[in-house]
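Record pair follows.
FIRST:
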Amino acid sequence: MLAVGVVAEVFDPRPGLPYFDFALCTDRPGQLRTDIGVPLTVADGLERLATADLVLALPWADFRIPPPRAVLDAFVAARARGALVAAHCVGTFALAAAGLLDGRRATTHWRFAALLAGRHPDVAVEADALYVDEGPVVTGAGAAAGFDLCLHLIRREHGAATANAVARDLVLPSHREGGQSQYLAAPVPEDCQDERLGDVLAWARQNIREPLSVAELARRALMSRRSFARRFAAATGTTPHAWLVNLRMTAAEELLETTDLPVEEIAHRVGYGSAAVLREQFVRRRGVPPRSYRRSFARER
C-alpha cells in the first residue's frame, strides 16, 4: 500500500506542471487485498500497459514467486515497443524474472539484495544504491526510496525544475546523494533534525551564491571543523562538502532550465567563481556540460 501511495502522489496532476495520465493495472482486475488490510479496487487489466510510456512494477507480498507469464510478457512487450520500464523495491524481482535485467545493473530493497543476486546471477545487483538508471530500465530501492526513484524519472524526462516543484509539493528533498545504508538510521540532508545544523543548512541555501566553505558552516554552527563534520555525517549521512556541491548542482540545473541567463552568471549565482569551474563540476557529476544540459530541456521550456 505504501508503494501505491508513493506513485499516486508523485504522478498526481498539478497545475502548471506536465500532466501524467496515471493508472493502476493488474492481471486480475477487481478488488485486491493489500498488506495493511485495506481493499483496493483496480479497474484496468494488462491491456493498459500496451499504450503506457512508463511501466512501473510495484512490490507485492509473494515476490518470491514469479508473476504469471502474462504479466512478464506484458513487461517485455512494453520494453520492446519503447516504453520506459522501472521497478520499485521488490518489484525488481518481476523485471528480473522477465529477463529485462540480464546483463544490467539493478537495485532492490537492501534486505533482499542477496536473494535477487542469488536467483538472477546475470543481474549486477547494487545493494546500496537508491536507484539505478540503465537507460530503458530503471530500478529503485525499498520503502520511501520509491520517492527517489519517481522523482529521478521526472527529473530525467522533464528536468530538475519540474522534479523540484513536485518535491516541494510533497515536502521532500528533490535529490538525495548516496546509497541506502546511510539512510537506515539517519535523516536526509534537506530535512536535518539536528536543530543547530538545520539552521546552518537553511542559511546556506539562502546564501548559495556566496563562496561557502565547510569552515564557514562550522563557524556558524559554533563548532570546530572536525566536530562539525562528524556531527554533520551522523545527522545527514553525507559530508558537508558533498552536500554543498549537490546544493549548487541542483540550483544550477533549475536556472539552466528556467532562465536564459549566461552560464557565467549562473555560475556566480550558485557560488562558483567562473563558468569553467561550473562546467567542470557539471560534467563530472551530470555527465554533460551546462550548455548541452540546457539544450536538452529547451523544448520543454
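SECOND:
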Amino acid sequence: MEFAAVALPLALGIIMFGLGLDLTPADFARVAKQPKAAAVALACQLLLLPAICFGLVLLFRLPPILAVGMMLLAASPGGTTANLYSHLFRGDVALNISLTAINSVIAVVTLPILTNLAIAYFQPGDLSVGLQFRKTLEVFLIVLVPVALGMTVRRLSPGFASAMDKPVRIASVAILVLVIAGSVASSFDLLAANFLLLGGIATVFCVLSLTVGYVVPRLMKIEKPRAVASAFEVGIHNATLAIVIAQGVLGRPDMSLPAAVYGVLMFPIAALFGLWVSRRNPVREDKGSV
C-alpha cells in the first residue's frame, strides 16, 4: 500500500506536469472560438460514455469491484496520448489540447460524483460509503496542482519547458507501462480469473468510445478534423488517473484492473480506428483547424 500511496500519485504528477508544460491560458480560451465542437465532444465524454459503460457493465455482468473500476475509467478524462493520435491521423490537435485541459479540470468534480454513484449502485463491500470530501481533495491535488505547476514553468521559462517536452513524454510512457505492470502484479489472480471478461468489455468499450466520439460530431455537421480529434479525446482515457484513484485514493488495487487492461488495449485499437477513418474518407485540405 506504501507504493500505491506514494509512488502512484508521484507518477501521475509527472504525467500531469508534462501536460501543463504543453498548455497556455490560450488553450482554454480557444474553446470559445469553436464552442460547438468542444461542447459535443464534452457531452460525449461526460454524458454518453458513462451511460454506455454502465450498460456494458450490466451486460457483461462484471463483479461489483470490477464494475466500479470500469465506471471509474469511464469517468476519467481523455489522455494526453490523444494529441499524438490526432496529429498522426490529421485531427485538430489544437482542439485536443483544449479538450484535455478542460476535461482535466471538470474531472475533479465529475469523477468523484460518478464513482460515488457507481459505488452506491454496485456496493463493492466496504466501499459503500464512497468518495468523501478528503478523497475529492486528493483528486484535485494530484490532477490540477501538477498541471498548474507545469503551466507556470512554461510561462516563466518557455525554453526550459520546450526542452523538457520530449523527456517528460518519454517518462510518461515509461511510467504508464510501470503503473499497468504494477496493477497487474498486485491483483494477478483476479485478473487471470477475469481476463477474457475484462479484455472483452475493454475492447467493446474502446471501440464504442472512439465511434461515438467520431460519429456524433459528424452527425452534428462538425468538420472531420475536429471529429477525429473528438474521437481520440473520447476514446483514449487517462488510464493512469483511474489506476491512481483506485489504488492510491480508494486503496483497492483490484479496482484498477479494468483501467490497466484498457490502458494496454486502447493504443492498438485507436491506431486501427485511425487507419479505418483515414481510408474510409480521406481528410480534405479545407479542414478548418485552428
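COMMENT: DSSP finds 13 helices and no strands in the chain.
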